[in-house]
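Ticket #4471: structure export looks truncated?
Reporter: QA, pipeline team
Priority: medium

Steps to reproduce: submit the single chain below to the structure queue and open the exported record.
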Amino acid sequence: MRSDIVDKYKSKITEAYDLHRKFVNPQFVRVLEVIGYNRNYCGAEGAYLTDAKGIKVLDFLAGFGVYNVGRNHPYVAEVLHEIIDAKTASLVQMDLGVLSGMLAEKLAELAPGDLEAVFFTNSGTESVEGALKFARQATGRHKVVHCDHGFHGLTLGALSVNGNKEFRGRNEPLLPDCTPVPFNDLNALERALSGGDVGAFIFETVQGKGVFVPEDGYLQGARELCDRYGTLMIADEVQCGLGRTGKMFAVEHWGVKPDILVISKALSGGFIPVGAIITTRAIHSKIFDSMERCFAHSNTFGQNDLAMAAGLATLEILEKENLLENAAKTGDRIIEGMQKLADKYEMLTEVRGIGLMIGMQFGEPKSLGLKASWKLLHKMNDELFCQMITMPLLEKHNILSQVAGHGLDTVKILPPLMINDGDVDKFLTAMDSVLKEAHKITGSGWKTVKDLGIRTARTS
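Actual output as written to the record:
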């Protein structure tokens, strides 16, 4: 029997915003329409999206880091077709899946140190939730220390260690005894751990909100402190893992082995939701410590065959297509190019990043005319300035990017790891043009975002 779902999908592409306005999230629809991001994408391949008008858009957002191997990679798609055609016995539950065992074996091979016990999940936030439970059960301690600005997900447990106030609002009280410390501050971390009663220290190896990179010695020092005070170290690499920084796992840059490693996003090539918690056999055996506790933590779909096969195919692509090396090389080119633009344009104050996880920081200009416009814009809304960068990047140059976080004058890019030199040149040329326009007092960018601020105020 032939389905007509694809035909219906094609016929309703232009109705997507109406459907979401009516049945899903009308506020998000409003946001996309206000900032000019309502493109109606209907196709994607590699590093490019195609909108309903046939315009190709260079995707430097990659689904918030999901598409490390590029969109709709043909090899992952082929493997999924083969698994479906094979009619495997997926999710029997009272049996063991071969594919989940194979993917666990591969992740254990790739993970640092003796991390070899794998628990599969459906998402990054579910992986964080599981990691917190593992740490509490393994140590017998319920206190958790986390970092300011860290993002670990939006379910209640993960939200309790989320360092972003805008997400925590309306949800208090959350889990008790979750203590924030500044990122890159070992003294603050030691004060938080010194009581000897903290079960886990959780951190993003590279923070996604703002792209903050660990200072040299920070993670090594954190490892020493966790060992000293009996605290488990949880590295959240949901976004920065799986090649994003130029190594399979970002902790490898600093030679640190966490006690628990959390991954998701890019693991399936963007086809199937999947995540994983990777830990030591010693920690794992403290949770699953008897036959009665073989289901001490579980889920329904975590080991489904399609997700497992997609994970195996994705890891194979990362290695065979040398995507880690390409991420390091092209990331260096972008950072170097953006640093040259920072020398040229005063409002671009810093370029941060590693591999293809890059943040561009903007700051108040010294020029009197620009300074007055900057202050007026921030008085209207602290979130507006970066739209002067991201909106023309999409509207005029067909490049998709994002603002790095609430209250941050930071633009962030997360390109697929398979971008080429032509894509890098296109981005750098576009950024030069956008920055040039933004540094004109009478430039169209200032008018655009001021009008945006007015429209937002009127509709809020």
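Status: closed, not a bug. The export was complete when the record was re-opened. Leaving a note from the reviewer for reference: The longest strand covers residues 115-121.
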